[in-house]
């Protein structure tokens, strides 16, 4: 490894394929540590505490915020989500590559608190392809899709705030580019 790993943030609009790229990359390179977020959301069937999320109640989350224990946090769909700071710093101290998969608001908070972090924007090949991906899921109402598309326009406009942009034309290709940015090749 040519240099010490640093925190890398992957962000981009809903439907661009962040989770798919991360899952593919980690299947090939499990040494890349993906932060586990804390949330006030109730677990879904099959989700395990400490694996998928750290499930906490509102009071615990408020204490984490007040004590500066979160690197970033946001409210989404009435639930709080945040990245525990200590786990990220511990992994970085061990020299392990750390990846956060978070939204634009969280990426901006990380930039404020850790300016040395590398922010990577995952972009769709085109607006039409993003619309196709979001509508093709078939799991959300038109109102939710419209909300996601409106948010995507805001997120796409913020691309210049990022250190690098990867265009998701191929999961394998983008995963390889992300690994190179993480210095894991």
TrEMBL record:
<keyword id="KW-0963">Cytoplasm</keyword>
<dbReference type="InterPro" id="IPR027417">
    <property type="entry name" value="P-loop_NTPase"/>
</dbReference>
<dbReference type="InterPro" id="IPR008145">
    <property type="entry name" value="GK/Ca_channel_bsu"/>
</dbReference>
<comment type="function">
    <text>Essential for recycling GMP and indirectly, cGMP.</text>
</comment>
<dbReference type="Pfam" id="PF00625">
    <property type="entry name" value="Guanylate_kin"/>
</dbReference>
<dbReference type="InterPro" id="IPR020590">
    <property type="entry name" value="Guanylate_kinase_CS"/>
</dbReference>
<feature type="domain" description="Guanylate kinase-like">
    <location>
        <begin position="5"/>
        <end position="183"/>
    </location>
</feature>
<dbReference type="GO" id="GO:0004385">
    <property type="term" value="F:GMP kinase activity"/>
</dbReference>
<keyword id="KW-0067">ATP-binding</keyword>
<keyword id="KW-0418">Kinase</keyword>
<protein>
    <recommendedName>
        <fullName>Guanylate kinase</fullName>
        <ecNumber>2.7.4.8</ecNumber>
    </recommendedName>
</protein>
<keyword id="KW-0547">Nucleotide-binding</keyword>
<dbReference type="InterPro" id="IPR017665">
    <property type="entry name" value="Guanylate_kinase"/>
</dbReference>
<dbReference type="InterPro" id="IPR008144">
    <property type="entry name" value="Guanylate_kin-like_dom"/>
</dbReference>
<keyword id="KW-0808">Transferase</keyword>
<comment type="similarity">
    <text>Belongs to the guanylate kinase family.</text>
</comment>
<feature type="binding site">
    <location>
        <begin position="12"/>
        <end position="19"/>
    </location>
    <ligand>
        <name>ATP</name>
    </ligand>
</feature>
């Amino acid at each position: 490894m040519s240099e010490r790993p640093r925190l890398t943030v992957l962000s981009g609009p809903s439907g661009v394929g962040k989770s798919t790229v991360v899952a593919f990359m980690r299947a090939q390179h499990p040494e890349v540590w993906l932060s586990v977020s804390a949330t006030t959301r109730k677990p879904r069937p099959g989700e395990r505490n400490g694996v998928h999320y750290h499930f906490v109640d509102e009071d615990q989350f408020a204490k984490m915020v007040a004590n500066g224990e979160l690197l970033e946090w946001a409210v989404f769909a009435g639930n709080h989500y945040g990245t525990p700071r200590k786990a990220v710093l511990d992994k970085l101290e061990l020299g392990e590559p750390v990846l956060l998969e978070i939204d634009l608001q969280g990426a901006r908070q990380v930039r404020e608190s850790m300016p040395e972090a590398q922010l990577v924007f995952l972009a769709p090949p085109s607006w039409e392809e993003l619309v196709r991906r979001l509508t093709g899921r078939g799991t959300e109402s038109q109102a939710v899709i419209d909300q996601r598309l409106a948010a995507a326009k805001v997120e796409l406009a913020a691309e210049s705030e990022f250190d690098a942009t990867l265009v998701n034309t191929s999961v394998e290709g983008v995963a390889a580019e992300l690994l190179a940015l993480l210095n894991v090749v």
